[in-house]
Design a protein that fits this description.
With 186 residues, this protein is α/β, with parallel strands linked by helices. It has five helices and seven strands. It has one domain: 3-Layer(aba) Sandwich (Pyruvate-ferredoxin Oxidoreductase, domain 3). A seven-stranded mixed sheet has the order 2-3-1-4-5-6-7, covered by helices on one side. Strand 2 and strand 3 form a beta hairpin. The radius of gyration is 15 Å and the shape is globular.
Length: 186
């Protein structure tokens, strides 16, 4: 297996950086080599944030930004309008999208699969705040099959505890169960 590269797009306060770390932990639980790191612009709530996660069966030596992702996760649906969002997406690419309805148009010729879930709504129900990151991680598990939901839920315990862990386990599980997967022929 060659390395898989994931680029997460969100806004400050939505948990993009934490999602990248949780995802890396889940892959590590399954014995994969991982690397994860954020890229900040202005470090304040609401500003765009990008985080990166790589995983592989072999040691990962590359620690640069991800320019050619296999998967894009869009935590804030307003970022879908960024003109550079799909730049570098590899053929057969995957999009995990926080949105209340499926895409009507095919936004990139390299996009093959989209996992759509109303993660904001689910997060408000389960956590009581608009922090949709763990819900979207559940959507990633369902859409890609790259890891098991059990590994993800276990990884959440490395970052959360008590009632917040319980809420995020429900959030991720609902993300897994409620994701609608769209596919396009390339």
């Amino acid at each position: 297996m060659s390395a898989k590269e994931i680029r997460l797009h969100g806004r400050g306060g939505q948990g993009a950086v934490m999602a990248a770390k949780m995802l890396a932990s889940a892959f590590a639980i399954e014995g994969k080599a991982v690397a994860t790191f954020p890229m900040y612009g202005f470090e304040r709530r609401g500003m765009p944030v990008i985080a990166f996660t790589r995983f592989d069966t072999e040691q990962i030596l590359e620690k640069t930004q991800i320019y050619t992702p296999d998967l894009l996760m869009v935590i804030d649906p307003t970022l879908l309008s960024l003109p550079t969002l799909f730049d570098g997406l590899k053929p057969g690419g995957v999009l995990i999208l926080n949105r209340d309805k499926p895409l009507a148009d095919h936004p990139s010729e390299n996009l093959e699969k989209v996992g759509v879930v109303n993660a904001t709504h689910i997060a408000l129900c389960e956590i009581g705040r608009d922090i949709p990151n763990t819900c979207l991680l559940g959507a990633l598990v369902k859409t890609t099959g790259w890891l098991n939901l059990t590994s993800l839920l276990t990884a959440l315990g490395e970052y959360l505890d008590g009632s917040m862990l319980e809420k995020n386990i429900r959030n991720a599980t609902r993300g897994y169960n409620e994701t609608e997967v769209q596919t396009w022929d390339l």
